[in-house]
């Protein structure tokens, strides 16, 4: 049985990636029709999203998550979705070297992805980083690859893990990065958390941070968990879920 689902984003390419992430289907296996190519408008006026219509085979479409990592103590389960490398010592399992065929399959999948996004100048660097498998994409169009607020690179990372571990036991999480985006984002979140915590203590009231995805919220929780002057909690639902920082 088939049905159709509509997806939209700033560009057709981003809409395709968003659809693939939502359906758990590799980008090159999607069947879709471009309904509207979208427009950036003039100086932001008249801008509209691109729209695609995706044909979904409901009898076979499944979304498979790779084996989750062990939650960090003090961090709520709903915010446990790490998408960037962490610094804690790796356990014995993550210290094992991944097989060469896993790295090769990762490279083949990413070559298909960058080809589908027309990133002709992209260079791939894939290696076992110890705690995780690192995939670094260098391209002059890093902004397109990363997407608004990291939505594209996060969706691609999710799909990459699903594709590689679909038919093999989970080994290490695959972390997709480009031009140092992950580290810059972590540092920006930590800076925001630090400033907001000081403000919460100074003004003696709860400070709400902007809505964040689970991985970003987790960065804030971990960064502030040893700060005895504040406590953190997540509030809201869906895309509006955010971290609240309160004086202890």
> How many runs of DSSP E, i.e. beta strands?
9
What coarse outline follows from CA principal-axis ratios? globular
Question: Helix and strand succession?
Answer: EHEEHEEHHEHEHEE
* Oligomer class: single chain
- What is the helix content? 25-40%
Termini separation (Å)? 54 Å
CATH class of the largest domain: Alpha Beta
Q: Classify the fold: give the CATH topology of the largest domain.
A: GMP Synthetase, Chain A, domain 3
| Rounded mean pLDDT score | 79
CATH architecture of the largest domain: 2-Layer Sandwich
Give, in spatial order, the strands making up the sheet with the most strands: 1-3-2
Spatial extent as radius of gyration:
19 Å
Helix/strand/pairing class, anyone?
alpha+beta
The largest sheet, given as strand count, sense and whether it forms a barrel, is: 3 strands, antiparallel
Commentary on this structure:
With 248 residues, this protein is an alpha+beta fold. It folds into 3 domains: 2-57; 99-179, K homology (KH) domain (GMP Synthetase, Chain A, domain 3, 2-Layer Sandwich); 183-247, R3H-like domain (Ribosomal Protein S8, Chain: A, domain 1, 2-Layer Sandwich). The protein is 33% helix and 21% strand. It has 6 helices and 9 strands, in the order βαββαββααβαβαββ. The strands form 3 sheets. A 3-stranded antiparallel β-sheet has the order 1-3-2. A hairpin with a 6-residue loop joins β8 and β9 (242-247). It starts with a strand and ends with a strand. 32% of the residues are buried. The model is unreliable at 59-77 and 80-92 (pLDDT under 50).
């Amino acid at each position: 049985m088939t049905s159709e689902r509509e997806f939209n984003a700033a560009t057709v390419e981003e809409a395709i990636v968003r659809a693939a992430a939502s359906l758990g289907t590799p980008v090159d296996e999607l069947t879709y029709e471009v309904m509207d190519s979208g427009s950036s408008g003039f100086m932001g006026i008249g801008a509209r999203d691109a729209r695609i219509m995706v044909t979904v085979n409901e009898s076979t479409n499944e979304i498979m998550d790779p084996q989750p990592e062990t939650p960090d103590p003090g961090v709520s389960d709903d915010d446990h979705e790490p998408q960037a490398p962490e610094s804690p010592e790796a356990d014995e399992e993550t210290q094992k070297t991944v097989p060469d065929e896993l790295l090769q399959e990762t490279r083949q999948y990413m070559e298909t992805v960058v080809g589908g996004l027309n990133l002709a100048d992209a260079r791939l660097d894939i290696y076992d980083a110890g705690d995780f498998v690192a995939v670094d994409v260098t391209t002059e169009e890093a902004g397109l690859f990363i997407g608004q607020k990291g939505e594209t690179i996060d969706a691609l990372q999710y799909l990459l893990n699903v594709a590689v571990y679909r038919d093999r036991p989970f080994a290490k999480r695959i972390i997709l990065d480009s031009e140092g985006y992950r580290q810059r984002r972590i540092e920006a979140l930590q800076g925001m958390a630090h400033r907001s915590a000081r403000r919460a203590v100074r003004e003696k009231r709860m400070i709400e941070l902007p809505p964040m995805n689970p991985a970003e919220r987790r960065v804030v929780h971990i960064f502030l968990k040893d700060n005895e002057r504040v406590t953190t909690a997540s509030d809201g639902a869906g895309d509006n879920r955010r971290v609240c920082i309160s004086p202890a």
